[in-house]
Design the sequence.
């Protein structure tokens, strides 16, 4: 039996997450939490089971449920009833029994900052970080949840490179309240970019000297995270996503949003031929490439880490036709669409492997969440 603290006791708990820290009594080994990615266009759910130390994971359950347009805007829940109903439908349709979940947030209410601090003990750092954070957080310090992690310590001076993570209390409470009303227990609130990194690391080999841009393209926001091997270096959210492509098609072909979305996905019942859509998408690919280039150039200029050597795409927007090829040509680097189930055992007797693979890029965040365990 598990006893969790009240929702207002959630706080940031690195690695990359806000976490409820509670005294727990658990029979047997720690279970993985259900990963529930509440995006602006849909809710994605993944449940994993660890097969034993070093033996990887297997997929227990997964599902997706669309949300009405503008139910969530810019990370803010505008229609709580619609979101709760969608979560409950997803639970019912997927026959999900587990109630302990991890979810994630992003957007303007989330701040990630790498800072330098002088040598000090862990106890002193825990005391000093709150005062130091005030220099980097554009909110009242009393309005945010904070956490930090030491990334590196200089062996000569003892000086520290620290990752500071913060999110507004209202945002965290909003998401945990929604989940509680849907009948779920929230044990961790993570950050989208870090979830994608976690999913990437269990599915792909990492090179300690290689800089990779993890680009997660959601419906309205793109999360960009630069990593060197497994070390996070830089984060930025772009206000650009899959909806921009849809709106471009909608505008050029005089369609409603639903028709344009169907045309973007190449659905036969859209009534629109792909020959009409591809030139529009190619133009939008160029516009997205311009926005991404600004971020990659800023990273190179401000970090002294050098240029990005590989781009890995995820999220629903990564499925846009020709985007990976266009970015590879524009940046002159390898571009790959992530499959977050690549190293996860997917039973052919329980799942349609073709369906899982077709939807896979959309589940990077929820896979990263599902790697978390109760009590960790």
Sequence:
């Amino acid at each position: 039996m598990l006893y969790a603290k009240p929702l207002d006791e959630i706080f940031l708990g690195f690695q990359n997450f806000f976490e409820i820290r509670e005294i727990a009594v658990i029979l047997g080994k720690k279970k993985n939490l259900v990963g529930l990615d509440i995006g602006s266009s849909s809710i994605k759910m993944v449940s994993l089971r660890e097969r034993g130390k070093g033996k990887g994971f297997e997929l227990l359950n997964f599902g997706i449920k669309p949300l009405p347009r503008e139910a969530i805007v810019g990370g803010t829940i505008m229609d709580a009833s619609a979101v709760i109903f969608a979560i409950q439908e997803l639970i019912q349709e997927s026959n999900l029994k587990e109630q302990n979940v991890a979810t994630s947030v992003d957007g303007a209410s989330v701040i990630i900052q790498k800072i330098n601090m002088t040598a000090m003990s862990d106890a002193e750092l825990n005391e000093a970080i709150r005062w130091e954070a005030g220099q980097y957080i554009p909110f009242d310090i009393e309005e945010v949840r904070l956490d930090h992690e030491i990334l590196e310590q200089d062996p000569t001076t003892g000086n520290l490179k620290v990752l500071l993570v913060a999110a507004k209390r209202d945002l965290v409470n909003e998401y945990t309240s929604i989940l509680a009303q849907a009948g779920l227990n929230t044990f961790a609130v993570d950050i989208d970019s870090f979830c994608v990194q976690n999913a990437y690391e269990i599915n792909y080999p990492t090179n300690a000297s290689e800089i990779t841009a993890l680009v997660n393209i959601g419906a309205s926001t793109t999360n960009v995270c630069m990593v060197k091997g497994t070390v996070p270096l830089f984060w930025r959210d772009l206000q650009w996503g899959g909806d921009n492509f849809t709106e471009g098609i909608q505008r050029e072909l005089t369609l409603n949003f639903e028709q344009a979305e169907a045309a973007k996905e190449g659905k036969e019942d859209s009534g629109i031929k792909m020959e009409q859509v591809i030139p529009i998408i190619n133009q939008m690919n160029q516009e997205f490439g311009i926005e991404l280039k600004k971020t990659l150039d800023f990273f190179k200029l401000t970090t002294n880490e050098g240029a990005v050597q590989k781009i890995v795409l995820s999220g629903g927007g990564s499925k846009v036709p020709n985007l990976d090829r266009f970015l590879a040509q524009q940046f002159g680097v390898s571009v790959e669409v992530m499959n977050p189930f690549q190293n996860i055992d997917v039973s052919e007797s329980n799942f349609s492997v073709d369906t899982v693979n077709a939807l896979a890029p959309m589940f990077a965040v929820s896979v990263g969440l599902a790697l978390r365990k109760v009590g960790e």
